[in-house]
Design brief:
Elements: H1 5-32, H2 39-46, H3 50-56, H4 60-83, H5 89-106, H6 108-120, H7 137-149, H8 159-179, H9 185-198, H10 208-215
Helix pairs in contact: 1-2, 1-4, 2-3, 4-6, 5-9, 7-8, 8-9, 9-10
Length: 216
């Protein structure tokens, strides 16, 4: 009978190596900046041979992508527990995007290299089996599904469909913040939430966020 446990162990060891490299890279990115960090430094800090590093990650952007995906995976459980607390849908959504904005603002110089890498590998699979969602879409879908059950969100569209639309608004707000000087990320996310919840009709002008946007 063939021995079937070895591939599982190999995959676990591979995942451990990927995560070890990513965590070492994050420490370097935070200490000296993303641009100043080299693959040679990442290999040394993670205690892997340079050839092994390149076998797993062909470029520094790939290390960054895995590090960001790992951060999402590690934070998902905490965010899910927060979203399961009692409260209205809009308040939970605003809290979720506030958490996201806090992290993004602290790691702004990582974002454009990450997005360039993601766009070049848009059809690629997850970095490792069982990896958590790469973005907020899964949390959006869970939050929307709960709101649909409570009657707070329309149910003629599936939760994952609405989550995808919300995620596009989120991404558009994020890219506007990254590429247009003088924008405030919290305001950009606030406008995206208002548009998702209330549409683009004139009634949206009654919301505080929309009033701020109209005068900016």
């Amino acid at each position: 009978m063939p021995h079937t446990s070895a591939p599982g162990r190999r995959e676990r060891r591979r995942t451990e190596t990927l995560d070890q490299v990513a965590r070492a890279a994050v420490a370097l990115f935070e200490a000296q900046g993303y641009a100043a960090t080299t693959m040679e430094q990442i290999a040394a800090a993670s205690d892997v041979a340079k050839g092994t590093l390149y076998n797993h990650f062909p470029a520094k952007e790939a290390v960054l992508a895995h590090a960001m995906h790992l951060s999402v995976a590690e934070d998902t459980v905490r965010l899910q527990s927060l979203l399961q607390q009692p409260g209205p849908f809009e308040a939970k959504l605003r809290h979720l995007l506030a958490e996201s904005a806090h992290w993004l603002q602290a790691h702004r110089d990582w974002l454009l290299p990450y997005f360039r890498h993601r766009f070049l590998h848009i059809d690629s699979g997850p970095a490792a089996p069982g990896e958590a969602p790469r973005d907020l879409a899964g949390l959006f879908a869970a939050l929307i599904s709960e709101a649909q059950r409570d009657g707070a969100v329309r149910s003629d569209l599936a939760a994952d469909h609405l989550a995808a639309l919300l995620h596009h608004l989120y991404f558009g707000a994020l890219m506007r913040w990254l590429t247009v000087a003088g924008r405030d990320l919290s305001d950009e996310f606030g406008a995206a939430i208002d548009l998702f919840l209330r549409g683009a009709g004139t009634a949206v002008a009654a919301t505080p966020s929309a009033r701020r946007k109209r005068t900016s």
